[in-house]
Design brief:
single chain; alpha+beta; 3-stranded antiparallel beta sheet; 8 helices; globular
């Protein structure tokens, strides 16, 4: 199965691809960014599944229990940031629940494209009032461009491997 991550890994470093996907040699401990991203995704998933903020934060707290990272000093700081991000997400996007129909949340998909098996997980698919589907991928970025629609960051997503595959999956 080919995923956006495996495809990106191969194009960046074939040897890393070999160790990660063929020999399946993975790091002993997950990296901090992966843990933080997963925690945020758990909170956002709860929001779009129309769960209340308390349930969302409880789900994230249960995830925190799975790794010692969150008990270390760096993890403690990240815990506070994750909680603040999820709380802010609920506060600033609550109105969107009435504006869009939620079609899919964290939807796993597979599709054969040109004879090759692809797979992935789409973060969110919404339908607007005109019936158009909107593909949403929860990106995290340190770029200030993320706040500017039409910026280089957003234009670049047109060529992002993950987004291209997800658009193909939606088709």
């Amino acid at each position: 199965m080919i995923t956006a991550s495996s495809l990106n890994t191969y194009t960046q470093c074939p040897r890393r691809y070999e160790y990660s996907y063929i020999k399946e040699k993975i790091p002993a401990a997950p990296q901090a960014a992966l843990l933080v991203g997963t925690a945020v995704h758990i909170g956002i998933e709860a929001f779009w599944n129309k769960l209340d903020i308390h349930t969302s934060l409880h789900n994230v707290w249960e995830f925190f229990k799975e790794s010692e990272f969150w008990d270390r000093e760096a993890g403690e700081l990240e815990r506070f940031k994750v909680r603040a991000y999820i709380t802010g997400y609920y506060a600033h996007r609550q109105h969107m629940l009435d504006q869009y129909e939620v079609v899919a949340v964290e939807h796993e998909w597979t599709k054969v494209i040109d004879g090759m098996d692809f797979a992935g997980k789409v973060d969110l698919v919404l339908r607007d009032r005109q019936g158009r589907l909107i593909l949403v991928d929860h990106k995290t970025s340190g770029s200030s461009d993320v706040e500017k629609p039409g910026s280089t960051f957003w234009r670049g997503l047109n060529y992002d491997t993950q987004m291209v595959l997800y658009r193909e999956a939606l088709s």
